[in-house]
Amino acid sequence: MSMRQILGKLLKNISPAMYTSSMLFAYCNSFEKPSADKKLQFEPLDLKKLTHEYMIKQSILNAVNSATQTLTVTYMAIADLSIEYRKLLNELISLLEETLTYNVSDEHWDLIVELRNEMQHKKEKLLKLSDSMEYVYTMATAASQLSYLYEMENLCNTLLQRIDDAMCKMKAEIDSNKQLEHTYWYIQGQCIKGSKEPTEKQ
């Protein structure tokens, strides 16, 4: 086969690809500058709003939002932890009651010790959260007083309602915890008393 025939076949095979490539570039649109109507229009800054009172009110609004969020999150943490705490107390009460009726195994006592340690850990966390709630209450109260001072009464009233609601619900959780604790202490006292009686008889 001559060189001319070889080149002819190569060009014949390549030409469709070149045609296809040229078609790809033929439909590309060039970017145009946006017209004046399409440009973003920025409103000029209103310097009259940038007064000290305006900026203080904005800061108070941020403080109220922050206080509300902290109040809600802290209460939810107390509520969730209280549920776990009371669950452990109920389990301990059941296990201790069984020791008053049956001769339980060492594994039973080991489980009591394990749950008691876990319960104590959760109680310490609850005490920390309760202490934190006092500071959150102070912060939220200060924010409500500031909002009232700057005539933001609706904001003040809303925050006060949330404070009262959170504190009432927290008190209900703590009261429920204490009530179950008294039951636990009573059963624990019965167990201690029952363990001493056989020793005294001997």
Strand content: under 5%
The CATH architecture of the domain at 73-191 is Up-down Bundle
Low-pLDDT windows of residues: 14-31
Major sheet: none
Query: What are the secondary-structure elements, in order, as H or E?
Result: HHHH
Mean pLDDT: 82
Total strands: 0
Give descriptors for this structure.
4 helices
Q: Could you write a compact summary of the structure shown?
A:
The chain is mainly alpha-helical and about 200 residues long. The chain contains 4 helices and no strands.
Account of the protein in words:
Keywords: Apoptosis, Coiled coil, Mitochondrion, Transit peptide. The protein is mainly α and 202 residues long. The chain has a domain at 73-191: Methane Monooxygenase Hydroxylase, Chain G, domain 1 (Up-down Bundle), CATH 1.20.58. Helix content is 83%, strand content 0%. It is built from 4 helices and no strands. Helix 2 (52-101) packs parallel to helix 4 and helix 3 packs antiparallel against helix 4.
SSE topology sketch:
Layout (H helix, E strand, L loop, with lengths): L2 H24 L25 H50 L4 H44 L3 H49 L1
